[in-house]
Amino acid sequence: MTGVARAVAGWLAPEAPRERAVVTRMLVGAFATIYLLARFRYLADASRHVAADFAPVGVCSVLTAPIAASATWAIAIVTATAGIAFTTGFRIRVAGPAFFAGLLWILSYASSWGKIMHSENLLVLHLGVFALAGEVRDERVAGWALRAAAIATVLGYVVAGVTKLRSGGTAWLSGDALGSWVAWDALRKIELGSLHSPLAARVAESPALLQGLSLYTLLVELGAPVALVSRRLARAWGLLAWLFHVGILATMAIGFFYPLSGVAFAALLPVERVALLRRLATRADDRSA
Q1: How far apart are the first and last CA of the chain?
Q2: What is the DSSP letter of 114?
Q3: Which residue of 15, 44, 126, 185 sits 20 to 30 Å from the alpha carbon of 83, by its own alpha carbon?
Q4: Which residues span the domain enclosing 20?
């Protein structure tokens, strides 16, 4: 192995505190399990949909027609059980892959009816990383798992930023694209009687504010790779990204709950320093031993 190859391998799989990886694994597992349970009926029961609307995506592309309701309920129940086991550290080697596979299937199936939730992709990617890492028995495994999760986070934001520029071009730099989106979203929600932000009208009427928010959005998304440069930059970017989602919630009443919870950025942060999280993760870790 050449010096360059060793350097790349060392960067991709650095030594990291295994407690950090264990805490992050617990947080990701807990969020994914709670997310599934909170939307359990919606995700488990597809009977409200019309079969003609079924357009399978992702892993569900192997299907040619919807599956029986009994099967969707069974998959959801087994997946939720695996999620609880994974989060609490019970038989992680089995529970982890089962939870990942089940959640990937459930969310892909739910997205096969015309409403694709791109915000769920990062959660599934993080879950897959820590399911693969398993019990995280040493610092090297902890290092590659945390690095892989961090890279997934960064790439997700960069792709979002590039997509904005490709679809909106200079309109994103001027704020026009964001203004149109904020106004359209607010009007649609008002017409439907849905929850909307009272700030939307004021934001849409201020060109200067729209341009500032647009540039901030692109700064966060296209600037995401700085989070891989150093711990200090990772924390700074994580805070900026979290504030970005707070802004979306405030101005558009759209909640991206995974990043808003902070768990999406856990792999970038020294989460093991939080005493309560460390104690809970230690218990789960002991259970998996």
Answers
A1: 34
A2: S
A3: 15
A4: 9-288
